[in-house]
Design a protein that fits this description.
Blueprint: H1 3-6, E1 17-26, E2 29-39, E3 44-48, H2 55-62, E4 70-75, E5 78-79, H3 84-89, E6 91-94, H4 106-116, H5 123-134, H6 150-162, E7 168-172, H7 180-195, E8 199-203, H8 207-213, E9 216-221, E10 224-230, H9 231-235, H10 240-248
Parallel strand pairs: 3-8, 3-9, 6-7, 7-8
Antiparallel strand pairs: 1-2, 1-4, 4-5, 9-10
The structure holds adenosine-5'-triphosphate (ATP).
């Protein structure tokens, strides 16, 4: 065992995700202003924050999609920017925006993704069939992704993230536009995954869902972590939404100021 591994560092060691001093600026906008965050193995972390808080920018830097201006990101003990290929082997990502290969069917997209990841047949074919079946996409058959509904696109993108059974999943708004039956299935799939030791980081605007599903939560605003811990710690006995609004809601104008709305 090397000195790093003995000290709890290096591939397969330490927290599943370790972010240190992550910083990103877009011109005059400081999108991420120094984020430190650890996510333990087998934990389910919800990343919440108002629009423009820096959630997607943080997830993009943690998954090798956007180069940080400063700081480090490690996944499963691998530095994402020093060893991106190894980090990406250990990561499944449902990115924002869902840019997919539109002229393939769901099955073709998954098979192509699996081959890019070097997955062998026939195990790949079995996993593709399992994922399409479980996520309710099998009936879409040869339909092309370009003709999928928004929720179907989300589900096939999620299937791509799960396909290689990575130890860590990063999911940007995985439940957005997904119907309640599929949402329940996805919750069960993700719970089973963390139950077996997998780690999930998801961003969401739905506090109730984070409260119900996640072990841990990090509230970010203005590119900084305002609160982080177990859901119970951060809630402190109150509904998470209330705590969230107290933390980030300052400076908003009252809805009642739109007194003209609805009057004739
Ligand atoms: N490519 C870009 N170019 C310029 N500014 C950007 C870019 N990406 C993000 N930003 C800015 O960085 C800030 C953080 O954006 P980000 O998308 O990370 O927020 P978010 O928390 O994911 O928001 P939302 O909940 O609305 O998706 C915002 O002010 C946004 O306008």
């Amino acid at each position: 065992m090397g000195a790093d591994a003995a000290a709890g560092h290096g591939p397969g060691h330490g927290p599943a995700v370790r972010l240190r001093g992550l910083v990103k600026r877009f011109g005059p906008v400081q999108a991420v202003a120094g984020i430190d965050l650890d996510v333990g193995r087998g934990r389910f972390l919800g990343l919440v924050g108002p629009n423009g808080a820096g959630k997607t920018t943080t997830l993009s830097m943690a998954t090798g999609l956007l180069r940080p201006d400063g700081g480090t990101a490690e996944v499963d003990g691998v530095d994402v920017w020093r060893d991106p290929l190894e980090a990406k082997r250990r990561t499944g990502v449902l990115p924002e925006g869902l840019r997919l290969l539109e002229r393939l069917s769901g099955g073709e997209l998954l098979t192509f993704t699996g081959r890019l990841r070097g997955m062998p047949e026939p195990a790949l074919g079995q996993r593709v069939a399992d994922l399409l079946g479980t996520l309710g996409l099998a009936d879409a058959g040869p339909q092309l992704v370009v003709d999928y509904s928004t929720g179907m696109r989300k589900k096939v993108a999620l299937a791509c993230a799960l396909l290689h059974n990575p130890p860590v999943l990063f999911l940007d708004e995985p439940f957005e536009a997904v119907d309640p039956v599929s949402a329940r299935t996805i919750r069960e799939v993700l719970r089973a995954y963390t139950g077996r030791g997998g780690t999930v980081v998801l961003s969401s605007h739905v506090m109730e869902l984070v409260e119900r599903l996640c072990d841990d939560v990090a509230v970010i605003a203005g590119g900084r972590v305002l609160a982080a811990g177990t859901v119970e710690q951060v809630r402190g006995g109150r509904p998470l939404e209330e705590v969230f609004v107290d933390l980030v809601g300052g400076g908003r104008r009252e809805a009642s100021e739109l007194g003209w709305l609805g009057t004739t």
